[in-house]
Amino acid sequence: MPIRMHVVPAKLPAQYLSKIMPVQHAQIVIPCSDFDATFEALTAQLGFRVDMIFPADSPTTAVVSGFGVTLRLEVAARAMGDSQVLLRLITDQSPLVVPVPGLSIEWVQGATTVELPEGKQEYILTRMNDADAWVTGRAGMQYRDLIPGRFGGRFIGSHIRIPDGGPVPDYVHFHKVRFQMIFCKAGWVRVVYEDQGEPFLLRAGDCVLQPPGIRHRVLEASAGLEVIELGCPAIHETLADHQISLPTMQVLPQREFGGQRFARHVPPPPPPAAGAPPAPAGPAGARPPRF
Asked: Among 1, 202, 224, 286, which residue is least crowded by beta carbons within 10 Å?
């Protein structure tokens, strides 16, 4: 899709513009008949950076920025009549009616909380025997949907894998969620989290609880990595953070993100075999109980 852009610097100071236009930020909406091709051309070829993308398992919406322009790519965006571009303005105040020739203007109220669907209970059995179930999602990772019904939109369960090991083309990002858990099923992955110290390996059997909004990044993975991810709500945004570098200078394990703390579980080593002598510990030894 050929896109011609003409960027004109603002003639008024930003603080003055904010007094007459209650705009937090603006996005130019680009309808995409081939989302992947448009996304690839803008990011890999033209150098736009990713600001937001969702859903992670099969992206249909992304926000990219560069050269003073922010573009929102949407699959099958609505028909826009004679206008070729829809300018979406996000605000937390009462919108102003400002006609702009050649543009279709849409005002959107900025969301401050993550809304949860009502949800629906159901029994789900997912068998791993469908090779076509895998789709390539964010950062080149492969996804398999474990909860097709999504419990009425309340939860998403994803089986994620990276067949080939090495560096992962990820970036610092965070999720607009109420709950998210990652369990490493096979292999290992090196990750880093905001205010949680140096990067660490998440190995098979390990689990982390990612609180809402915590910045993190996937750095490297072993060949054959597999993780299980549970998130709430099912459809949520993944936003890039280009301002922060990880790891951060400070380590704050007790810090709360959205009312929750980061938690990492590493299973204890297996108990010694029956009959094995206890490990010496000074004048005495200890053996963990087996239940």
From this structure: 286
